[in-house]
Amino acid sequence: MPVTPAASPLKILHVASEMAPFIKTGGLADVAGALPAALARMGHDVKVAIPGYRKALAAAGKRGITWAAVPMTIEVGGIDHQVGIGTVVMAPGFTVHLLACNELFDRDGIYGPSPSQDYDDNARRFAVFCKAALALPGALGWAPHVVHGHDWQAGLVPALLERGYGNVLPATRSVFSIHNIAYQGQFWHWDMKLTGLDWSLFNPLFCEHYGKLNLLKTGIVFADRVTTVSRTYAGEIQQGEFAFGLESVIKGTAYKLSGITNGIDTQEWDPAKDPHLAKAFSAEDLSGKAACAAALRKDCGLVNAPGAALVSVVSRLVEQKGIDLIIDAVTPYILAGRMQLIVLGTGDYHLEQRLNQLQARHPGWVYVWYGYNEPLAHQVIGGSDIFLMPSRTEPCGLTQMYAMRYGTLPIVRFTGGLADTVKDVATGNGTGFTFGPVDLGHFSSVLDRALGLYAHFPGEWRDAQVQAMGQDNSWDRVAAEYAGLYRRICIPA
Fold first, then answer.
1. What CATH number has the domain bearing residue 228?
2. Is the C or the N end of the chain the one with fewer CB within 10 Å?
3. Domain count along the chain
4. Considering the entire predicted model, what is its pTM?
């Protein structure tokens, strides 16, 4: 076990299947990009290993990627794979290594040819990736104190470390993060031979789960510490309603589980200097927000309705995000002239069709943009008064924190990271609005309450905006929590 003086920097290797700004399908990429950067700002020596996908390598080429002279040879299931090491220096103390293996990662898709279809060889792909990530420090002549794996794609990392894979990194400790327990990396039992682990570990105590190899479970069981992305979610995943069959595994490892709520990039999301906004504003001077709202209405073709609240959604359009609740609830408030609705996102076809119908019934009052548009996301969140996020489950969520930073009060269900980050205005010093049971009545009630406060109590509304904008949801705060966790497992008590 390495002994690290309290004031000395740590060496930390993050292993993740995606990372912004190179490749992104969800919140994992934001964490893998922002957390290492914040740790490096604290003075730690941080490296990130990600697969060398086709699109990731193209993005890295624009940042000046360099290649190691000699590739690594990684054996999986009796087949040798040549893995090249591409390096991009992001900032002092912060380096990204793209592990390139053309036969496995030089493809258009990341996890599959489409979002709804996985590649048949994902077990091999990510076994190679995990083994290459653990071989990387040896190739670099650099030994980390901690390896931090993220989600099922890195689930083999803690197991291989604990079982002494190749005698690499014998003194390195492991942390494993669950970003969304619904995605577990389940494969048929014969893929166990690809892991490099002994067949004896294919049992209910370790890698097997209902007859399948489960890589998320493997990471949880073998890691020295397990984290998830909010404090409330850490409790929720110990219940059958939220755990997708892994509740007994989480309960059995709860002694090493921590919930650390994600942060946001407060440089990229800053209304005082956001280049995407029509006019800058701050908690001290909110006058620019009205200009942002006017520009947003004009760009989206909405009628000028100064008495109506501008209500927005920036989300995947799926039932898990509560989009059906929103569609069911908003019509009476639109007809009454109390709100206008802007939706940005993409998702389930039937929900998109229902949004099309809503837009057609209320021209000038509802606008829907399908897809994801980063500048428009900033403009929508910056120009809106209320942000809707009635998720049925939400491990952490980031957009509610973006909304609060822009003085756009969120309406959220009291679950996961939403419960940890949004405090109801009814408390007297709240930052948004919360509700509990997932049904039309409760959601309509909280929406009515928010629209009422907006329309009739402008002083209280502004106080809530200022309170929301003053919340510290920065990655620097989050990184300090992780650094404390790393030190606790690296330093003898």
1. 3.40.50.2000
2. C
3. 2
4. 0.89
Alpha carbons within 13 A on the beta-carbon side of 1: 12
Measured in degrees and rounded to the nearest 5, phi and psi for residue 487 equal -65, -35
pLDDT band at 2 (very low <50, low <70, confident <90, very high): very low
Please check whether residues 92 and 234 belong to one and the same domain.
yes
Q: Are residues 204 and 312 in the same domain?
A: no
> pLDDT digits over 233-243, tens only?
999 999 998 99
Q: Is 247 helix (H, G, I), strand (E, B) or coil?
A: helix
- pLDDT at residue number 491: 65
Domain assignment present for 282: no
Q: Tell me the residue ranges of DSSP E strands in 145-293.
A: 146-150, 173-178, 186-187, 208-209, 212-214, 225-228, 257-259
Q: Is 405:431 a contact under the CB 8 Å cutoff?
A: no
Co-location of 128 and 191 in the same domain: yes
Structure tokens of 273?
A: 């200097």
Confidence of residue 8 (pLDDT cuts 50, 70, 90): confident
Residues 170 and 215 reside in one and the same domain: yes
- Residue whose entry in the numeric block shows the structure tokens 């420090």: 137
Exposed (0-12), middle (13-18) or buried (19+): which is 64, by Cβ within 10 Å?
A: exposed
- Tokens 């989480």 correspond to what residue? 250
The tens digit of pLDDT for each residue in 425-440 reads: 999 899 999 999 999 9
Residue 334 shares a structural domain with residue 441: yes
The boundaries of the domain holding residue 208 are 11-263+475-490
